[in-house]
Amino acid sequence: xxxxxxxxxxxxxxxxxxxxxxxxxxxxxxxxxxxxxxxxxxxxxxxxxxxxxxxxxxxxxxxxxxxxxxxxx
Length: 73
Prior knowledge:
The chain is mainly β. The chain has one domain. It has one helix at residues 3-10, and strands at residues 20-22, 28-41, 52-54, 63-70. The mean pLDDT is 89.
């Protein structure tokens, strides 16, 4: 999903609707930060990790992304 798609989805809700992210082990948290990060897809990531990781210094396959972080991460 890109920023345009996210904005279009959010436009379908009333402006005062609360936005949350998944909690660490369960439940939901308020958004603490919205950051821009360079990430790379890791096809070999374990199932308990996200499918993207920080790109570090690798330019090949790296993409700029917006990362929404909950307040308990």
